[in-house]
Amino acid sequence: MEKIAIIGMGMTKIEANKVSENFADMAWEAVNAALADAGMDIKDVSNLITTSNDFWDGRTISCMAVGDSSGAREKNCSCVEGDGTYGAFYAMARILSGSYPSTLVTGHTKGSESISSLITNAAFDPIYERSLGVDMITASAMQARAYMDKTGTTSEDLARVSVKNHGNAKNNPYAQLPMDLTVEDVLASEMIADPLHKLDCSPVSDGCCALILADEETAKKFCKKPIWVKGAAFCSDAYFLGDRDLAKPKSLVAAAKKAYAMAGITEPTRQIDLAEVYDAFTYQELMWAEGLGLAEYGKAKDRLKNGDFDISGTLPVNASGGLLSGHPVIAAGLYRMAEAVRQLRGEAGANQKDGAKTAVVQGLNGLCGQSHCVWVLGNE
Amino acid sequence: MIDQDLSKVTPQVYESKIGVPYTWWAGDTATRFLEGIRDRGELWATRCGKCSRTYVPPRKNCPGCFEENAEWVQVGPGATVVTFTVARRPLAAIPDPVPVVFALVKPDGADTAMLHRIGDVDPEKVSIGMRVKPRFAAERKGHIRDIECFVPEQG
To answer: Rounded to a whole number, what is the distance in Å from the CA of B65 to chain A's nearest CA?
Structure first.
């Protein structure tokens, strides 16, 4: 594969309710941060991909409405509906086509402006399912139970994910929910839908993240520390939850296999230094870590308990604090990529994994991880 | 004169909503399923001619083989709870008082589970592997909620 690099990244601080910026203002901030980070002017970017969701924005064709503040005027601008990692994949594909030296990709969500339960309920089939009243939290709770039943993972194990990630967030200036928690605090928090307590769930959040991807020549022209794409792949599973074995991340295993093959990763636990995964719920961090081959199936809880996934551990998972500490839905995967870039540049401050060379990042789309997008990034 | 400093602004909020009526045609396949529950209190599924997987609720094609599911087979009424949750917070999507038990239930003879609810039981007594059966509404309209919920098979 031609070499592709991430040469710029910009994140707004993730907040519960950004009253001073509308969705376009957030994009303005993140895009300018990414351009400054790359040492670029907006004129240096020929094209862009915005990632958004019309339901969250409360506006149809909202991808067109965010263009002006993203620098799209008189440029080639296209859109992805879904997680930002898929927008980044599109950006990468554009560069690989040979027609675009660099591509700006953004993702934004203001979760604060609507009602998540109603929006995610509308993801269910209107004929067969929607009127039952299920939403992302209750669907994920069913997946959590299936996973715990099959693997023996306990509520205490899930709580440890929350304790770790909220703790990691204390050193992340972009995080919404830095917290000192104990396992007991998590278990004592409101039971929303068994087995998920409030502190097993990511919060409602506002935020925008922008990345600039470039070909090798452009990367070397602008960037002192390009972070290289070593592998990237995604894969989908069936739409209906009842068609899948919810306890197993089948499509993630398939996506990781492809991304690892591209990157020459044969022993992920040895060759990968850190992971940023889509922890919308505590159990998901464990399931996705296993799907990425960072632990054997059902054993992520043991690695977590052993401290392996801590910042000081052998394989930090969500050293940034993850989505449990701030979850702007559509931007979420781009934030994970940006956090991996900070680590691979050695710019993660107190959360830095010393000597990190290779990171794996995972984004997802659909209910209960229907589709997963896996990136292997490296600084060499 | 206007103050040039935006940091002194107290942002306003605008409250509104989007209300768009939809008419989703169920199509031939889902309509046959809905007629089955409405007219006969039966669960009907479609089967893939290639892999023989039986899909409930029925789909026109097998997502695995990408072949048409040409055969109709009756499944259930007995079913097994594959997984479930007890919703305790009154989330906005739930149109009824909580607690509500959502579950994936696999009817006998089907290879997939269908999303529905569990009722007529203490939520604390629901378990994976529990045997259930559909409880149909007295008045039925050809709607998924013609099945009021799945209830314990015994008792």
So the answer is: 12
Using CA atoms of A110, A111, A112, A116 in order, give the dihedral in degrees to the nearest 10: 150
- Asked if A344 and A305 count as a contact pair (C-beta separation under 8 A), the reply is no
Domain A4-115+204-222: CATH architecture, name and number where available: 3-Layer(aba) Sandwich (3.40)
Q: Could you write out the DSSP letters of every residue in A269-328?
A: HHH--EEE---SBHHHHHHHHHHTTSS-TT-HHHHHHTTTTSTTSSS-BSTT-TGGG---
In this complex, do A138 and B22 lie within 8 Å of one another by their Cβ atoms?
no
Kindly indicate whether the ipTM for this predicted assembly is greater than 0.90, answering yes or no: yes
A136-151 and A282-291 helices cross at what angle (nearest 10)?
A: 60
Residues of chain B with pLDDT under 50: none
Numbered residues of chain A with Cβ closer than 8 Å to any chain B Cβ? 19-20, 58, 115, 117-118, 120-121, 124, 126-129, 131-135, 137-139, 141-146, 149, 190-196, 238-243, 246-247
Nearest to A134 among B57, B93, B143 (CB): B93
Chain A partners within 8 Å of B94 (Cβ): 117, 133, 135, 138
The per-residue pLDDT for range B87-123, each reduced to its tens digit, is: 999 999 999 999 999 999 999 999 999 999 999 999 9
Specify the amino acid at residue B24. Answer: W
The first and second tokens of residue A169, run together, are 């967030």
Which 8-state DSSP code applies to residue B70? -
Contact A192 B106 (CB under 8 A): no
Kindly report whether the peptide bond that precedes residue B77 is cis, defined as omega within 30 degrees of 0: yes
Q: Which amino acid is at B92?
A: A
CB-hemisphere CA count at 13 Å for A104? 33
